Amino acid sequence: MGQTIHPRCRTCPAGCCRYFCLRLAEPETYEELDEVRWFLAHRGVTVLIDHDGEWWLRVAGRCKWLVGRGRSWRCRQYAGRPLPCRRLSPERCEQALGRAAPLAEFTSPDEIEAYAREALGERFELARRRLEELADREAQAGDRAPKPRKPRSRAAKKN
Protein backbone atom coordinates (compact mmCIF):
# COMPACT_ATOMS: atom_id res chain seq x y z
CA MET A 1 0.00 0.00 0.00
CA GLY A 2 1.73 3.18 -1.21
CA GLN A 3 1.44 6.57 0.41
CA THR A 4 0.43 9.61 -1.59
CA ILE A 5 2.62 12.46 -0.38
CA HIS A 6 2.23 16.03 -1.59
CA PRO A 7 5.20 17.10 -3.79
CA ARG A 8 6.02 20.02 -1.47
CA CYS A 9 6.31 17.58 1.44
CA ARG A 10 8.97 15.58 -0.43
CA THR A 11 11.50 18.44 -0.12
CA CYS A 12 10.34 19.82 3.21
CA PRO A 13 12.81 20.07 6.14
CA ALA A 14 9.89 18.95 8.39
CA GLY A 15 9.87 22.01 10.66
CA CYS A 16 6.35 21.24 11.85
CA CYS A 17 7.54 17.79 13.00
CA ARG A 18 10.25 19.27 15.23
CA TYR A 19 8.11 21.13 17.77
CA PHE A 20 4.56 21.65 18.87
CA CYS A 21 2.75 24.67 20.27
CA LEU A 22 0.08 25.00 22.91
CA ARG A 23 -2.01 28.15 23.23
CA LEU A 24 -1.63 30.01 26.51
CA ALA A 25 -4.02 32.46 28.07
CA GLU A 26 -2.40 35.88 28.06
CA PRO A 27 -0.79 36.28 31.50
CA GLU A 28 -2.20 39.29 33.33
CA THR A 29 -0.90 38.87 36.88
CA TYR A 30 2.49 38.32 38.44
CA GLU A 31 1.47 34.75 39.32
CA GLU A 32 0.62 34.00 35.70
CA LEU A 33 3.82 35.60 34.42
CA ASP A 34 5.81 33.67 37.03
CA GLU A 35 4.28 30.45 35.70
CA VAL A 36 5.51 31.41 32.22
CA ARG A 37 8.93 32.07 33.79
CA TRP A 38 8.83 28.52 35.16
CA PHE A 39 8.01 27.13 31.69
CA LEU A 40 11.04 28.95 30.30
CA ALA A 41 13.33 27.37 32.90
CA HIS A 42 12.96 24.12 30.94
CA ARG A 43 15.07 23.16 27.94
CA GLY A 44 13.47 23.36 24.53
CA VAL A 45 10.69 25.73 25.64
CA THR A 46 9.97 29.09 24.03
CA VAL A 47 7.00 31.40 24.58
CA LEU A 48 5.76 33.43 21.61
CA ILE A 49 3.29 36.24 21.05
CA ASP A 50 1.97 36.04 17.50
CA HIS A 51 0.67 38.87 15.28
CA ASP A 52 -2.86 38.33 16.61
CA GLY A 53 -1.64 38.86 20.20
CA GLU A 54 -2.06 35.16 21.02
CA TRP A 55 0.41 33.60 23.46
CA TRP A 56 1.95 30.23 22.59
CA LEU A 57 4.13 27.73 24.43
CA ARG A 58 6.47 26.12 21.88
CA VAL A 59 8.10 22.85 22.90
CA ALA A 60 11.01 21.63 20.81
CA GLY A 61 11.14 17.93 20.17
CA ARG A 62 11.31 15.86 17.03
CA CYS A 63 8.36 13.59 16.32
CA LYS A 64 9.15 9.93 16.94
CA TRP A 65 7.72 9.02 13.53
CA LEU A 66 9.96 11.40 11.58
CA VAL A 67 12.75 9.64 9.66
CA GLY A 68 15.32 10.88 7.18
CA ARG A 69 18.07 13.48 6.88
CA GLY A 70 18.92 16.71 5.08
CA ARG A 71 15.88 17.76 3.05
CA SER A 72 14.60 14.23 2.68
CA TRP A 73 12.24 13.55 5.56
CA ARG A 74 9.16 11.40 5.82
CA CYS A 75 6.62 10.22 8.36
CA ARG A 76 6.55 6.52 9.20
CA GLN A 77 2.89 6.96 10.17
CA TYR A 78 1.82 9.20 7.27
CA ALA A 79 -1.30 7.19 6.40
CA GLY A 80 -2.34 6.98 10.06
CA ARG A 81 -0.89 10.27 11.30
CA PRO A 82 -2.73 12.16 14.08
CA LEU A 83 -5.40 14.75 13.30
CA PRO A 84 -3.19 17.79 14.08
CA CYS A 85 -0.79 16.57 11.38
CA ARG A 86 -3.62 15.99 8.92
CA ARG A 87 -4.84 19.54 9.44
CA LEU A 88 -1.55 20.94 8.16
CA SER A 89 -1.97 21.90 4.55
CA PRO A 90 1.02 21.86 2.19
CA GLU A 91 -0.43 25.04 0.64
CA ARG A 92 -0.53 26.93 3.95
CA CYS A 93 2.32 25.48 6.00
CA GLU A 94 5.50 27.27 7.12
CA GLN A 95 7.38 25.80 4.15
CA ALA A 96 4.88 27.25 1.68
CA LEU A 97 4.21 30.63 3.28
CA GLY A 98 7.39 31.24 5.19
CA ARG A 99 7.35 31.55 8.93
CA ALA A 100 6.35 35.00 10.14
CA ALA A 101 8.47 36.32 12.96
CA PRO A 102 6.48 36.59 16.20
CA LEU A 103 5.82 39.96 17.82
CA ALA A 104 7.72 38.72 20.86
CA GLU A 105 9.72 35.61 21.65
CA PHE A 106 10.90 34.66 25.12
CA THR A 107 13.57 32.00 25.53
CA SER A 108 14.68 32.49 29.14
CA PRO A 109 13.23 33.22 32.58
CA ASP A 110 15.14 36.54 32.60
CA GLU A 111 13.45 37.72 29.40
CA ILE A 112 9.93 37.11 30.70
CA GLU A 113 10.83 38.69 34.04
CA ALA A 114 11.96 41.85 32.24
CA TYR A 115 8.68 41.81 30.30
CA ALA A 116 6.72 41.34 33.55
CA ARG A 117 8.52 44.28 35.18
CA GLU A 118 7.57 46.49 32.24
CA ALA A 119 4.01 45.18 31.90
CA LEU A 120 3.15 45.35 35.61
CA GLY A 121 5.17 48.41 36.55
CA GLU A 122 5.10 49.14 40.30
CA ARG A 123 2.77 46.21 40.89
CA PHE A 124 5.59 43.82 39.91
CA GLU A 125 7.67 44.18 43.09
CA LEU A 126 4.61 44.22 45.36
CA ALA A 127 3.21 41.05 43.79
CA ARG A 128 6.61 39.32 43.80
CA ARG A 129 7.16 40.06 47.50
CA ARG A 130 3.63 38.96 48.40
CA LEU A 131 4.05 35.66 46.56
CA GLU A 132 7.46 34.99 48.08
CA GLU A 133 6.05 35.59 51.58
CA LEU A 134 3.13 33.27 50.85
CA ALA A 135 5.49 30.56 49.54
CA ASP A 136 7.66 30.93 52.66
CA ARG A 137 4.61 30.55 54.95
CA GLU A 138 3.44 27.49 53.03
CA ALA A 139 6.91 25.93 53.23
CA GLN A 140 7.08 26.57 56.99
CA ALA A 141 3.63 25.09 57.49
CA GLY A 142 4.79 22.04 55.53
CA ASP A 143 7.79 21.68 57.86
CA ARG A 144 5.44 21.50 60.86
CA ALA A 145 3.16 18.93 59.26
CA PRO A 146 3.46 15.46 60.75
CA LYS A 147 5.88 13.27 58.85
CA PRO A 148 4.37 10.11 57.39
CA ARG A 149 5.35 7.02 59.30
CA LYS A 150 7.53 4.51 57.59
CA PRO A 151 5.76 1.14 57.47
CA ARG A 152 7.43 -1.54 59.56
CA SER A 153 8.64 -4.47 57.59
CA ARG A 154 7.42 -7.84 58.88
CA ALA A 155 10.66 -9.42 57.72
CA ALA A 156 12.65 -7.13 60.05
CA LYS A 157 10.59 -8.24 63.06
CA LYS A 158 12.11 -11.39 64.58
CA ASN A 159 11.04 -12.85 67.91
Q: How would you characterize this protein structure?
A:
The chain is built from 6 helices and 6 strands; from the N terminus they run αβαββββααβαα. The chain has helices at 7-10, 30-40, 83-86, 94-97, 109-120, 123-144; strands at residues 19-24, 45-49, 55-60, 66-69, 72-75, 104-106. Helix 2 (30-40) packs antiparallel against helix 5 (109-120). The strands form 2 sheets. The chain has a 4-stranded antiparallel sheet. A two-stranded antiparallel ribbon has the order 4-5. It is elongated. The chain is α+β, with helices and mostly antiparallel strands and 159 residues long. It has one domain. Residues 151-159 have low confidence and may be disordered.
Portion in strands: 15-25%
Structural category is alpha+beta
The overall pLDDT average reads 81
Tally of structural domains: 1
User: Compute the gyration radius: what is it?
Assistant: 24 Å
- The number of helical runs is 6
The count of β-strands is 6
Stretches where pLDDT is under 50 for at least 5 consecutive residues are 151-159
Distance from N terminus to C terminus (CA atoms, Å) equals: 70 Å
Largest sheet, in brief, is: 4 strands, antiparallel
Outline, from the CA principal axes?
elongated
Q: What is the helix content? A: 25-40%
Which labels suit this protein?
two-stranded antiparallel sheet, alpha+beta, elongated, 6 helices, disordered C terminus, 36% helix, 159 residues, four-stranded antiparallel β-sheet
